[in-house]
Request: fold
Amino acid sequence: MKILRASDYKRMPWKNGGGETVEIAVFPPGASIEDFDWRISMATVASDGPFSIFPGIDRTLSILAGAGMELTIDGDTSLVLDLNSEPCPFPADKPVLAKLVNGVVTDLNVMTRRGRFSHRVSRQPAPLSLSPSASLRFVLATGNHTIAFGSEKAELGPLDCLALEAEATSDLVISGGTGVFLIELDPDGGADLR
Reply:
C-alpha cells in the first residue's frame, strides 16, 4: 500500500498545449506522455476545444468537479458527462471535441496502451471493502477518507490516491466521505504490472 498525496502530483502541459495536466501515476516510472504504458491524471478544462490524440491508447474520463462537459467522439457520438455520470471509456486515438456545460471542470483521465495494459474505472460508495485482487488498483479519494489495510491505518484527503499492489493479501476498508474512484489495471500479453 502506498499513498500518493495530491500536493506531490507532477504538473505538465497538455500534449496539445491547450492546458495543464496533473499526473497522479505513470508506468513505466518517469515515462513521458508519448511512451507510457499506463497513466492516471487529472486536468482542469477551462474552455471548449479538442482533446489531445494518443495513438494506440484507450482512455476513460470521469468528472471530479464542475457542471460537466459534452463530448463529441469521432464526429458523431455525443454525450454529456457530469458529476453523476459513470466513467466514460473511449479510444484516445479518435478525435474528441469537448464543450463545457457551464464553466470550468476538473476531470480524471485513465489511459492504457493497447496490447500492453487494459483498465477499468468505477465509482464506488464509501464505506467500501476491497478483497485481494490480481489487478494493480488505485483508489482516488473524492473527500476525506480513513483507510485500513491489515494492521495499517491512514487518512486520505480530497484527490489523494492509494496505490494497492496486485500481490496485496489483506482486505482494504475505506470509510468516510461519499465515495471514491476505483481504477484497476491489468497487463495484456505478458506485460509486467511493475
The first strand starts at residue 2 and ends at 4. The chain has no helices and 19 strands. The chain has two domains: 9-113, 117-187.
